[in-house]
Amino acid sequence: MGVNIKARKRVVALISVGALAMAGCSSSDNSGSGSSAAQGEIDTSAVLKFASAGPLRDLDPALQTSYGAWGYLFLVWDRLTMLDKDDKIVPGLAKEWNFVEDGGVLELKLRDDVKFHDGTPFDAEAVKVNIERGKTLEGSTLKSDLADIESVEVVDATTARLKLVKGKGVQLPASFTGTAGMMVSPKAIKDGADLKNNPGTAGSGPYIATQLVPQEKLVLKRADNYWDPNVGRLGGIELQRVPDAAARLNGLQSGQVDLAPLSSAGEIATVEKIVTPGSGLQQNQVKFKNVVGVYMRANKGDVAKPEVRQAIAHAVDPEAISALFSGYCTPTRQVVPETDPSRIPNYTYPYEFSVDKAKALVQQAGGAKVSVTFAAGTNAEQPANVVQASLRAVGVDATLNPVPNTENEPRFIAGDFELMVGTSWSPKADPAATVNTYLLNTYKLAADPSLIADKAAEAANPTLSMDKRAPLYQDIWKTTLEQAWFLPLCNQTNANVSKANIVGTDNIPMSNIGIWDLRHIAVKK
Amino acid sequence: MIRYASRRLLAAIPLLFVVPLLVFALIELAPGDPAVVLAGDEPTPDRVEAIREELNLNAPVLVRYAMWVGDVLRGDLGTSFLSDQTVIELLTRRMATTMSLVLVAMIFAVVLGATLALVATLRSGGIVDRIVNGLASVAIAIPGFWFGLVLASVFAVGLQMFPAFGYQPLADGFWPWLSHLVLPGIALGLLPAAEVTLQLRSALGQVMKTDYVLNAEAKGLSRSSVVFKHSLKNACIPVVTVLGFRVAEVLAGSVTIEMIYNMPGLGRTAIEAVQGRDIPVLLGFVLFSTTVVVLVNLIVDISYGYFNPKVRS
């Protein structure tokens, strides 16, 4: 698994790789297979070397500020519920969950065979302690996730009842698939364990953290006697933060890395070239749920004029954006993916690409001036340039506004920009959370909330089945698109690239939103 | 000599406070809000304000600067906004990486540069001399990051002779440590190596034309004896000066090399601090870098005084 540092004088390889480096080209075949089918004897002592760009600040689930860090935590902390690779909510520490008492209570039935690695039994009291911690801890980023829970009642060791704010909380089973559902040993909490840097045995996850170097690496060892025998099949995992995609690719090719996710079009194109029969590498491509699109602040500047937003929606061609990504960004005109039950069937987007219609609307608005904000040096950069050119072509005075990658989202949320080209529209596991995050709260794209608020409240009724909720969300999506609060363009492609002996790369839940749950990964002997 | 060194040292101290002040001002003038960045992917106004209060970001810039200076004088550079680590702890750990990288780069530059310059001088006017000059001139124009990528492609990916990225502390063993530094060290050391070659070759050329050298040659001393025993020390003055300046440039160049080779060094620390608006780390980095540059310049000045006593007066 390590680096082969034996000096091998392979002159042919030197010449060919050198030429490759100079010319930036390579062979073009693609083995392109996943790995689960290729089963073999599992090497339970293997240590997987994983490299990703995800931020790695600390391990306390209640203090995470970035979704990108979740992948590190999934392996340490078990969650009440989990997502499978098809985005279906499946049992975790909670075996069952039901909304009872007219939706006023979410009742969780818990596993009875789980202990935290420090020996503390996992039970309803642990759920209560963790939810109360998430709601009250200073600096907790879980407060909004848990806001719909008024209190937690411990019925018995395996039953917890979460009393909900009236008419709210429908998204909680989905929220529990993330940091909000991660369980920490009550004993460790009581003892004031350093959950940020050295959680030790405070988790009940398939692996135990043995070393954390913030922003650099996390070293894990397998937790013995994990409750799910199909998980935790590695001796350990070394997760390294490698922000530069070229370095990750080099690491894969040199044997220094066993598994790494790659995402931009350039990276995927390179992957297509290097993953060839005999290369010792395999890839598994995943279409992102995240939507590349244009966020519009419909109460700011000229974007506040409906005609201008409609003109912008007419002016940008999703096919042109897709072409920028060498076809690795599938055009879409909806805000949720095919797998989402709230996806609108047989939908016709109201603003087809039309330069003439866009020009007419700009003239009708008496001209328009907008600033096209984007995160410099990211996958949003090229689309932003195309959007700007498209807007200029229809008479909009559009200028580019590059900002640092860490600032574009928070500053858009803070209301600094009227228009932003982004890649981060990430449909949540439950449509209620998507509405809450992007339309009514955090991003507040719904400039006129009254257009959707009633339907959102009705759809958030926990007693309704998804069949009944889905049409309400479909109406909300239609309003969102008609109002041009958000202009969806395409879904990018992600590739999990690994050595050929890695198993389970086609079963990495959440890799379709740029996060990775590596619990199913193993290594063949 | 001691008075001269002390005078130079005292003159440099104000720089250590002026440069961070300029950085403080630049951070203040730059658009954006550290609290908003630190609040994460989906910040709420309450959380942003809480962070602002916690980090004292609402105080005027001069007040915050004065507090920072006070803390520095007490030996406290603060705590990173992005992690629980103190700035001193973070910089100390990452300094080892960068210092190792700079050390390997400078050793490579001096050994290669001096060797080529001496070979060229011994073959003065011949084809070897012209080839060395030509190669050095080309090497100066090669961007370090591009050379770094090529080296990684050929020697890490292709031949798998060295790791493609990362860093191993010296405590893990000499070869693991060195193997991670060879490629980035060469990439970083190429430019100073070329400059050492050209400067030393040029300086040796001039010294070789002086009367005392011509006299030595006339006495029948061998060319190698003339070069090594009578010319090299005098020719070192401009080379030492160049090397001094290059240390600062190599430190700056380490930023891109550390990113290419994913080395957890000061360069990567600085980039992460800028991206994450991690003000304490950024200021700590600036203070450290300024100190290094000041010290290197001081050493250059002092060595200049050693080589040429007239400078001391």
Automatic annotation (TrEMBL), chain A:
Pfam family for this entry, one: SBP_bac_5
Presence of the UniProt keyword Plastid in the record: no
Signal peptide: 1-23
Membrane topology value: Lipid-anchor
InterPro entries documented for this protein: Peptide/Ni-bd, SBP_5, SBP_5_CS, SBP_5_dom
SUPFAM superfamilies: Periplasmic binding protein-like II
Domain Solute-binding protein family: 88-442
Gene3D superfamilies linked to this entry: Dipeptide-binding Protein, Domain 3, Periplasmic binding protein-like II
Compartmental location: Cell membrane
Keywords carried by this UniProt record: Signal
Keyword Signal carried by entry: yes
Major location category of this protein: membrane
Sequence similarity: Belongs to the bacterial solute-binding protein 5 family.
UniProt protein name: Peptide/nickel transport system substrate-binding protein
Species of the source: Micromonospora echinospora
TrEMBL record, chain B:
SUPFAM superfamilies associated with the record: MetI-like
Compartments, record wording: Cell membrane
Family annotation (Pfam families): BPD_transp_1, BPD_transp_1_N
Residue intervals of the ABC transmembrane type-1 domain: 95-304
Gene3D superfamilies: MetI-like
Membrane topology: Multi-pass membrane protein
Record key words, sorted: Cell membrane, Membrane, Transmembrane, Transmembrane helix, Transport
Sequence intervals crossing the membrane: 99-122, 134-162, 174-194, 281-307
InterPro entries, A to Z: BPD_transp_1_N, MetI-like, MetI-like_sf
PROSITE patterns (alphabetical): ABC_TM1 (PS50928)
PANTHER family documented for this protein: DIPEPTIDE TRANSPORT SYSTEM PERMEASE PROTEIN DPPB-RELATED (PTHR43163:SF6)
Family designation: Belongs to the binding-protein-dependent transport system permease family.
Identification of the protein by name: Peptide/nickel transport system permease protein
